[in-house]
C-alpha cells in the first residue's frame, strides 16, 4: 500500500490521482489520467486479494471407503494396526517373557539365568548382522526371531526334560498364540505374527531354517559363556545340537563357538 501513498502525494507527477487546480486538461492528459485510473484499480484489486486470508490447500488423496450410513471407514493402514488399548494389553502380557527364566539353565542351577526375552533379543541381533543369503529375506528373519518363542509368555518355557509330548507342547503354544493374536485385536499385525510363528514351527521356509539354526547357535553360545563365567560343564547342550544345523551360516557359527570352547579347555 505504500506505493499508492507515494503516487497520491506527488502533485507534479502526471500520474497524480488528483491534478492541481491550475492544470488545464488536454486530450493527452485525460488519456493519461484514464490509463492511471485503470492501472490503479487493477493494482488495488491485486493488493486486496493478496492480503486476504489464503485458501487452505488440499492434498489429493484417494477417496475413503464409506459404510452403508455414508460414514467414512478407517483406511486400511490404520485398521491394520492395533488400538492403543490392545497394544498395551499385548505388551503387558509380553512382560512375562522378560520375567520368565529359561528352564534349561534353571534346572542346571545357573546363577542369574537369561530370560526368554534375553534369548529372543540376541537372536534378533544375530539375524540383523548376518550376511545376505540368496533366497533369504533378512528382515523376515529378524521378525521371526523375535516372534518364535512369543507363545511362551503364556505357556512358559517347555523343554524335553518336562516330559510334555511334542504334539501337546505344540497344541498349548498354538492355543496361546491364538489368545495373543486376539488380544492384539486381530488384523494384519496379528496375522503377520501368526504366519511367522507357523513358518518357524513348520520349518517350512528358508527363513525358518536360518532362524532355527540361530536358535541353536544362541543356546550353545550362552552355554559357553556360562561355562566360562561360572566354571560349569554344559557339554549336554553342545551334544544336543551336534549335526542338526541346516544352513551354512549355522554350521559356520557353531563351528566357531566349538573352536573357542576347545581353546578354552586346552588352557
From TrEMBL:
Q: Which residues form the HD domain?
A: 116-220
Q: Which cofactor does it need?
A: Co(2+); Mn(2+)
Q: Keyword annotations for this protein?
A: Hydrolase, Metal-binding
Q: Please give the superkingdom of this protein's source.
A: Eukaryota
Assembly and binders? Homodimer.
Record's family? Belongs to the HDDC2 family.
* The protein's name in its UniProt record: 5'-deoxynucleotidase
Q: Which organism is it from?
A: Papaver nudicaule (Iceland poppy)
Taxonomy, top ranks, is: Eukaryota, Viridiplantae, Streptophyta, Embryophyta, Tracheophyta
Amino acid at each position: 500500500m505504500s506505493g499508492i501513498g507515494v503516487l497520491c502525494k506527488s502533485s507534479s507527477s502526471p500520474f497524480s490521482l488528483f491534478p492541481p487546480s491550475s492544470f488545464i486538461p488536454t486530450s493527452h492528459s485525460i488519456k493519461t489520467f484514464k490509463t492511471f485510473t485503470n492501472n490503479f484499480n487493477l493494482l488495488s484489486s491485486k493488493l486486496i486479494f493478496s492480503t486476504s486470508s489464503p485458501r487452505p490447500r488440499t492434498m489429493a488423496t484417494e477417496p475413503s471407503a464409506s459404510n452403508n450410513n455414508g460414514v467414512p471407514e478407517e483406511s486400511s493402514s490404520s485398521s491394520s494396526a492395533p488400538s492403543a488399548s490392545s497394544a498395551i494389553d499385548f505388551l503387558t502380557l509380553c512382560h512375562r517373557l522378560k520375567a520368565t527364566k529359561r528352564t534349561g539353565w534353571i534346572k542346571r542351577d545357573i546363577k542369574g539365568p537369561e530370560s526368554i526375552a534375553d534369548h529372543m533379543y540376541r537372536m534378533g541381533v544375530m539375524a540383523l548382522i548376518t550376511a545376505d543369503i540368496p533366497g533369504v529375506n533378512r528382515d523376515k528373519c529378524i521378525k521371526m526371531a523375535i516372534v518364535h518363542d512369543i507363545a511362551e509368555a503364556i505357556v512358559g518355557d517347555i523343554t524335553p526334560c518336562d516330559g510334555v509330548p511334542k504334539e501337546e507342547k505344540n497344541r498349548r503354544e498354538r492355543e496361546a498364540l491364538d489368545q495373543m493374536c486376539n488380544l492384539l485385536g486381530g488384523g494384519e499385525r496379528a496375522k503377520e505374527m501368526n504366519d511367522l510363528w507357523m513358518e518357524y514351527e513348520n520349518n517350512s521356509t528358508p527363513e525358518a531354517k536360518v532362524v532355527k539354526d540361530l536358535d541353536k547357535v544362541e543356546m550353545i553360545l550362552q552355554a559357553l559363556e556360562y561355562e566360562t563365567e561360572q566354571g560349569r560343564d554344559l557339554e549336554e547342550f553342545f551334544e544336543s545340537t551336534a549335526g542338526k544345523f541346516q544352513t551354512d551360516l549355522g554350521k559356520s557359527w557353531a563351528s566357531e563357538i566349538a573352536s573357542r570352547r576347545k581353546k578354552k579347555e586346552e588352557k
